[in-house]
Amino acid sequence: MTVCTNMEQKNKIIYAVDRLAPQIKQLALTIHAHPELSFAEVDSCAALIAPLREAGFVIEEQLAGLPTAFRATFDSGKPGPTIALLAEYDALIGLGHACGHNLIGSASVAAALALHAGFPELNGRIEVIGTPAEEEGGGKILLAGKGVFDGHDAVMMFHPRDKTMVTRGGLACVDAVFKFYGKAAHAASAPQNGISALDAVIHTFVGVNALRQFFTDDVRVHGIISDGGSATNIVPAYAEAKFLMRATTVKGLDIVRQKVFAAAQAAAAMSGAQLTIEEGLTYAERNNNLTLATFFQHNLETLGVDVVPPPRSGGIGSSDIGNVSQITAAIHPYLRIGDVIPHTPEFAEAAGSEAGLAAMILAAKALAMTAADLITDPAMLRAVREEFLNWQAQR
């Protein structure tokens, strides 16, 4: 496989990112200092849009009806590929940017601005698509359902991590809220008149735990009691549990889902409670475009960054980029920001550190360089598209 190495053009992109670096670092720090939760990323969304609008990108706000989704487009009007750089910017409850989305969104904005400034002969179309609610809500899934990613030749983003890897899997997952309705009674003087919704929740956890020995090794099921009653001397008339289920594929996930739902239904029956289930969106497994990942790795190595292979097993979460990767060629590489694990206070601190900002700048350069490869080398673009179409045909 050949890789385009037009370093004169790429040096212009690298220079453009370096020139933007102070502005982009401040953007990432501003978002980091003011974390906003899923679908409420009003200020973060506006902060990411501002430099793109100033540079002349065409801005679409409230994309696909989502208040904090956006698309910023530079269209050359000349034939060429359509490439999207994805931005995430939602935070975690109680932890802030403990997944580094402040760095993700800012890197994609920097890459687009550098392409625009350092590559005036750009053919085709470059988009930054602002995708809210990755942590909870599946913003990309909703956008995909509205056709936002249809017709794109490739989509790219980066994610901070404790290792630099260009490929890594992503489990399919779905969440569900089990709501149990019982009957209140005095827990001491007339418990026989009550139906404990909390008992139904507890039996659900017992049932799920009994299932674990029958799950395949890839399956993960985790839950919390989100409402267990209001007072110890009252039989709880209402109780609620939230579960997240994961498996390697959507097909395998459906089997897990059926078993967990059956456990909740059995728990309701044995407790005498009524049950309603509110199911969330299904996050699909990730389809890494290996050809595109190879080009991205080449550009990282050109920048002096060492890449390690992904773990052979374990260490995998879920992301709504998986749903996008079912529609078009996609990559979701990782860059190291320190010896920190996502969704921890330590990771949140690293996402606002000098190491985090330095990784973001490197990611912006590699993203822009890889986009330039696809724009300037038809053979590279064709190889990326052929891999995706072959994968799609074999599903």
Overview of this protein structure:
This protein is an alpha/beta fold. It is built from 11 helices and 12 strands. The chain has helices at residues 7-33, 42-54, 101-118, 139-145, 197-211, 250-271, 290-302, 321-325, 345-350, 354-376, 378-393; strands spanning 58-61, 70-75, 82-87, 125-130, 154-156, 159-161, 172-181, 220-227, 238-247, 274-279, 329-331, 334-336. Mean pLDDT is 95; it is low at 1-5.
Task: Estimate what percentage of residues fall within beta strands.
Answer: 15-25%
CATH C-level of the largest domain: Alpha Beta
| Fourth-level CATH superfamily of the largest domain | Zn peptidases
The coarse silhouette is elongated
Mean pLDDT: 95
Outline of the structure:
It comes from Rouxiella aceris. The chain has 395 residues and is an alpha/beta fold.
What layout of secondary structure does this protein have?
Layout: H1 7-33, H2 42-54, E1 58-61, E2 70-75, E3 82-87, H3 101-118, E4 125-130, H4 139-145, E5 154-156, E6 159-161, E7 172-181, H5 197-211, E8 220-227, E9 238-247, H6 250-271, E10 274-279, H7 290-302, H8 321-325, E11 329-331, E12 334-336, H9 345-350, H10 354-376, H11 378-393
Helix pairs in contact: 1-3, 1-10, 2-3, 3-10, 5-6, 7-10, 10-11
Which properties best describe this structure?
hydrolase, elongated, 11 helices, single chain, Alpha-Beta Plaits, Aminopeptidase, 6-stranded mixed sheet, alpha/beta, disordered N terminus, 17% strand, 2 domains, Peptidase_M20, Peptidase M20 domain-containing protein 2, para-aminobenzoyl-glutamate hydrolase activity, 42% helix
